Amino acid sequence: MRSSLAFLFLVSFLPACSGGPGPSEPPSGDGPDKPDEAVALVCDLMRAACERQVACGHPFINNTPGDVDACLEAQRCETVSDVLTSPDVVVDPAAVANCVAAIEVASCGALAAQGLGIDPSCAHYVVGTRAEGESCRGGTVSDCAAGLSCAFEGDTCPGTCTRAPERCSEGSCGANAFCASDGTCKDRASIGEACDETLLDFENLRDDPCVAGAHCEAFVCVANLDAGAACAGANLHACGEGAACLCADPANCASDADYACRPARAEGEPCNMALDCNEGLYCNFGDEGRCAKRGGPGAACGDSYGACQHPLTCVDGACAGEEPLIADLPLLEEGQSCVESGACPLGMACTCDNEGCTEKRCLPAPGLGASCQEQMLANITPFACAEGLCDLLAGYTCVLPAAAGEPCPVDGLTLACASLVCIGGKCASAEQTRCEE
């Protein structure tokens, strides 16, 4: 089963920040020299992906049922123009061509499993051009060339394009740092200091950009909530270490008033989400929703989010690194059981079919504006909505990633924005995600 949260930067259609595999040198001067030509290239790639998705009948870039045009509209490919306002970010025509070719030859099961992670070119068709040692300003899409990341010393700007060292892992950064999404350890901020949740790797369940006793809220570190405080709708880490936002009875949570900061569940206790469980544990839905130990290399695992320690993922039933590539997913039909994993058809989502979620079936997915939290209990995936994405980062609502300047419901990190960031009720531009020199 693919790692859905690591895939978020792809499914929001903006490419992942540079730092993974890709061309070692910036694109040469033969790329498109006009923004509209670059946008056309990206939209052509997305059309090719949509054509393949419709032919397969199963989602791998969005879950929109219907024709190719509906799929393409949901991709909002034109919003890439916002990223390209930077003179240091370009579209690589060769990467676009390679990505299209990879999509066209891949099996439907492999696309359902890996999506646009099917080939490194699909993660790096929009790339920075600044070389190793040059200054950089970071951002949702880095201005450094592929294979480099923008490293900052403290709060200074600009940073420096740096070859990434060996990637950090869960717990390897110590008490005063966290393992960021670019694979490097970064210092935690104190209460009242600026913080940036976009730097988090969401598969590192308990990491936080703030010091112990604090969490990041609206880009500032604030004190955690007290024990017993109401927490419905709060940041996932707001209750602090050893605690979680829980209702007293996991099987009967009727309203927001039932949720309060309580001691996190111990091994073997019932749970609804991974963060309901104490550190080192996850919520194992293969065991009727009970907290279990997260696995190391080679440990048995299932579909439940967090089953493997970061940065491991569950591959063919065992916790492993990035290799080998994830195998094809079974292609399911409406009403078919998805307990053993598999890709539900377009417009469907794996949904709990009994109280303990031991039975799951492919059922109609919720529409835009509707809650997708119920689907998250069955399978952590951004493709739990019939259109757009399930906002795993803020509120579990079906959203269509909006362009810069368009309204967004929750400040902070959110899939409701193509830039992944909402500031003052409006989607941030790519420029706003970069530091100011």
Q: How would you describe this protein?
A:
The N terminus is likely disordered. The protein is of the alpha+beta class and 437 residues long. Strand 8 and strand 9 form a beta hairpin. The protein has a 3-stranded antiparallel beta sheet, with no helix packed on it. It has a 3-stranded antiparallel beta sheet with strand order 20-21-22, with no helix packed on it. 50% of the residues are buried. Among the domains are: 144 residues, no CATH class; 78 residues, Lipase, subunit A, CATH 2.10.80.
List keywords for this structure.
Lipase, subunit A; 437 residues; 22 strands; 3-stranded antiparallel beta sheet; 17% strand; signal; alpha+beta; 16% helix; Dickkopf N-terminal cysteine-rich domain-containing protein
Share of helix, binned: 10-25%
What is the percentage of strand-forming residues? 15-25%
Which parts are unreliable, with pLDDT below 50 for 5 consecutive residues or more?
A: 1-33
Note the main sheet.
3 strands, antiparallel
Q: How many separate helices?
A: 8
Structural class of the secondary structure composition?
A: alpha+beta
Look at the structure and give the mean pLDDT.
83
List how many beta strands DSSP finds.
Answer: 22
Distance between the termini: 42 Å
Give the neighbour order of strands across the main sheet.
Answer: 3-5-4
Q: Note the overall shape.
A: globular
Organism: Polyangium sorediatum
Signal peptide: 1-18
Protein name: Dickkopf N-terminal cysteine-rich domain-containing protein
Keywords: Signal
